[in-house]
Amino acid sequence: MTAAALPALDDQPDRPDRTVAGFVRRHQAGLWRWLRTLGCEAADAEEHCQDALLAGLTAGADRWPPDDAGRWLRRAARNLFLMRLRRERRQPNWTSLDGIEAGWQAIRGDHDGGAAAVAALGRCLRALGEREAELVERRYRAGESRADMGRALGLGEAGIKQALRRVRDKLRTCVRRRLQAMDEETEA
Are 1 and 41 in contact (CB under 8 A)? Predict the structure, then answer.
Protein backbone atom coordinates (compact mmCIF):
# COMPACT_ATOMS: atom_id res chain seq x y z
CA MET A 1 0.00 0.00 0.00
CA THR A 2 1.56 3.29 -1.01
CA ALA A 3 1.05 6.50 0.89
CA ALA A 4 -1.16 7.73 -1.97
CA ALA A 5 -3.29 4.59 -1.67
CA LEU A 6 -3.84 4.99 2.07
CA PRO A 7 -7.47 5.55 2.96
CA ALA A 8 -8.60 8.94 4.18
CA LEU A 9 -8.72 9.34 7.92
CA ASP A 10 -11.95 10.16 9.68
CA ASP A 11 -12.43 13.84 8.87
CA GLN A 12 -15.35 14.29 11.27
CA PRO A 13 -14.06 13.18 14.68
CA ASP A 14 -17.08 14.77 16.38
CA ARG A 15 -19.40 12.41 14.44
CA PRO A 16 -17.68 9.03 14.58
CA ASP A 17 -18.71 6.41 12.02
CA ARG A 18 -19.60 3.32 14.09
CA THR A 19 -19.80 0.94 11.12
CA VAL A 20 -17.19 -1.70 10.36
CA ALA A 21 -16.13 0.38 7.35
CA GLY A 22 -15.76 3.41 9.62
CA PHE A 23 -13.63 1.42 12.06
CA VAL A 24 -11.36 0.25 9.24
CA ARG A 25 -11.20 3.74 7.71
CA ARG A 26 -10.34 5.28 11.08
CA HIS A 27 -7.51 2.87 11.94
CA GLN A 28 -6.07 1.35 8.75
CA ALA A 29 -3.74 4.12 7.60
CA GLY A 30 -2.27 4.74 11.04
CA LEU A 31 -1.85 1.03 11.67
CA TRP A 32 -0.07 0.59 8.34
CA ARG A 33 2.24 3.53 9.13
CA TRP A 34 2.94 2.04 12.58
CA LEU A 35 3.99 -1.27 11.05
CA ARG A 36 6.20 0.49 8.52
CA THR A 37 7.76 2.47 11.40
CA LEU A 38 8.63 -0.85 13.03
CA GLY A 39 10.44 -1.88 9.84
CA CYS A 40 7.81 -4.09 8.29
CA GLU A 41 7.89 -4.38 4.50
CA ALA A 42 4.94 -2.72 2.73
CA ALA A 43 3.23 -5.94 1.60
CA ASP A 44 3.67 -7.55 5.01
CA ALA A 45 2.40 -4.39 6.71
CA GLU A 46 -0.75 -4.55 4.62
CA GLU A 47 -1.28 -8.20 5.57
CA HIS A 48 -0.62 -7.64 9.29
CA CYS A 49 -2.85 -4.57 9.22
CA GLN A 50 -5.74 -6.60 7.81
CA ASP A 51 -5.15 -9.41 10.31
CA ALA A 52 -5.02 -6.97 13.24
CA LEU A 53 -8.20 -5.21 12.08
CA LEU A 54 -10.01 -8.56 11.84
CA ALA A 55 -8.78 -9.52 15.30
CA GLY A 56 -9.91 -6.13 16.59
CA LEU A 57 -13.38 -6.60 15.14
CA THR A 58 -13.57 -10.08 16.66
CA ALA A 59 -12.54 -8.64 20.04
CA GLY A 60 -15.16 -5.88 19.78
CA ALA A 61 -12.65 -3.03 19.42
CA ASP A 62 -15.02 -1.28 17.02
CA ARG A 63 -17.16 -0.45 20.07
CA TRP A 64 -14.26 0.90 22.16
CA PRO A 65 -13.10 4.51 22.30
CA PRO A 66 -10.90 5.12 19.21
CA ASP A 67 -7.70 5.76 21.22
CA ASP A 68 -8.12 2.48 23.14
CA ALA A 69 -8.87 0.59 19.94
CA GLY A 70 -5.83 2.16 18.26
CA ARG A 71 -3.50 1.11 21.08
CA TRP A 72 -4.92 -2.43 21.05
CA LEU A 73 -4.56 -2.66 17.26
CA ARG A 74 -0.95 -1.41 17.32
CA ARG A 75 -0.05 -4.00 19.95
CA ALA A 76 -1.78 -6.76 17.95
CA ALA A 77 -0.08 -5.68 14.70
CA ARG A 78 3.31 -5.47 16.42
CA ASN A 79 2.85 -8.99 17.81
CA LEU A 80 1.89 -10.31 14.36
CA PHE A 81 5.01 -8.70 12.90
CA LEU A 82 7.24 -10.12 15.65
CA MET A 83 5.74 -13.59 15.22
CA ARG A 84 6.57 -13.44 11.51
CA LEU A 85 10.14 -12.39 12.31
CA ARG A 86 10.51 -15.28 14.77
CA ARG A 87 9.11 -17.74 12.24
CA GLU A 88 11.66 -16.50 9.70
CA ARG A 89 14.41 -16.50 12.35
CA ARG A 90 14.99 -12.78 11.88
CA GLN A 91 15.49 -9.99 14.39
CA PRO A 92 13.73 -6.63 14.35
CA ASN A 93 15.96 -3.81 13.12
CA TRP A 94 15.38 -1.73 16.25
CA THR A 95 16.84 -1.99 19.70
CA SER A 96 14.23 -0.15 21.77
CA LEU A 97 10.51 -0.29 21.28
CA ASP A 98 10.26 2.52 23.85
CA GLY A 99 12.11 4.84 21.47
CA ILE A 100 9.76 3.95 18.63
CA GLU A 101 6.73 4.49 20.89
CA ALA A 102 8.10 7.90 21.94
CA GLY A 103 8.62 8.85 18.30
CA TRP A 104 5.08 7.74 17.46
CA GLN A 105 3.77 9.96 20.27
CA ALA A 106 5.91 12.86 19.02
CA ILE A 107 4.27 12.74 15.59
CA ARG A 108 0.81 12.53 17.17
CA GLY A 109 0.41 8.98 15.86
CA ASP A 110 -2.10 8.06 18.55
CA HIS A 111 -4.33 10.96 17.58
CA ASP A 112 -4.45 10.69 13.79
CA GLY A 113 -2.31 7.76 12.69
CA GLY A 114 0.51 10.10 11.68
CA ALA A 115 -1.56 12.02 9.13
CA ALA A 116 -0.57 15.40 10.59
CA ALA A 117 3.11 14.47 10.36
CA VAL A 118 2.69 13.31 6.76
CA ALA A 119 0.94 16.58 5.88
CA ALA A 120 3.64 18.59 7.67
CA LEU A 121 6.35 16.66 5.80
CA GLY A 122 4.64 17.44 2.50
CA ARG A 123 4.65 21.16 3.30
CA CYS A 124 8.29 20.97 4.41
CA LEU A 125 9.29 19.15 1.22
CA ARG A 126 7.64 21.87 -0.88
CA ALA A 127 9.68 24.47 1.03
CA LEU A 128 13.05 22.88 0.16
CA GLY A 129 15.46 24.62 -2.16
CA GLU A 130 15.96 23.29 -5.68
CA ARG A 131 19.20 21.43 -4.90
CA GLU A 132 17.79 19.90 -1.71
CA ALA A 133 14.62 18.82 -3.51
CA GLU A 134 16.72 17.19 -6.22
CA LEU A 135 18.67 15.23 -3.60
CA VAL A 136 15.44 13.98 -2.01
CA GLU A 137 13.94 13.14 -5.41
CA ARG A 138 16.98 11.17 -6.57
CA ARG A 139 17.56 9.27 -3.32
CA TYR A 140 14.07 8.58 -1.99
CA ARG A 141 11.81 8.58 -5.04
CA ALA A 142 14.14 7.32 -7.75
CA GLY A 143 16.14 5.12 -5.35
CA GLU A 144 19.53 6.18 -6.73
CA SER A 145 22.62 5.13 -4.85
CA ARG A 146 24.87 7.78 -3.33
CA ALA A 147 27.59 6.84 -5.83
CA ASP A 148 25.23 7.38 -8.79
CA MET A 149 24.00 10.63 -7.31
CA GLY A 150 27.58 11.80 -6.76
CA ARG A 151 28.51 11.12 -10.39
CA ALA A 152 25.43 12.94 -11.66
CA LEU A 153 25.85 15.93 -9.37
CA GLY A 154 29.64 16.18 -9.42
CA LEU A 155 30.10 15.32 -5.75
CA GLY A 156 31.81 12.51 -3.93
CA GLU A 157 29.86 9.85 -2.08
CA ALA A 158 30.78 11.44 1.26
CA GLY A 159 29.50 14.80 0.02
CA ILE A 160 26.17 13.27 -0.98
CA LYS A 161 25.93 11.48 2.37
CA GLN A 162 26.54 14.74 4.26
CA ALA A 163 24.12 16.71 2.06
CA LEU A 164 21.38 14.09 2.62
CA ARG A 165 22.03 14.19 6.36
CA ARG A 166 21.61 17.99 6.35
CA VAL A 167 18.37 17.72 4.34
CA ARG A 168 16.97 15.06 6.71
CA ASP A 169 17.88 17.22 9.72
CA LYS A 170 16.23 20.24 8.10
CA LEU A 171 13.06 18.23 7.33
CA ARG A 172 12.96 16.75 10.84
CA THR A 173 13.22 20.23 12.39
CA CYS A 174 10.58 21.61 10.04
CA VAL A 175 8.11 18.79 10.76
CA ARG A 176 8.61 19.10 14.53
CA ARG A 177 8.12 22.86 14.34
CA ARG A 178 4.90 22.48 12.33
CA LEU A 179 3.52 19.80 14.68
CA GLN A 180 4.36 21.95 17.69
CA ALA A 181 2.56 24.91 16.08
CA MET A 182 -0.47 22.68 15.47
CA ASP A 183 -0.44 21.59 19.12
CA GLU A 184 -0.23 25.21 20.28
CA GLU A 185 -3.16 26.16 18.03
CA THR A 186 -5.18 23.26 19.44
CA GLU A 187 -4.44 24.32 23.03
CA ALA A 188 -5.35 27.97 22.36
Answer: no
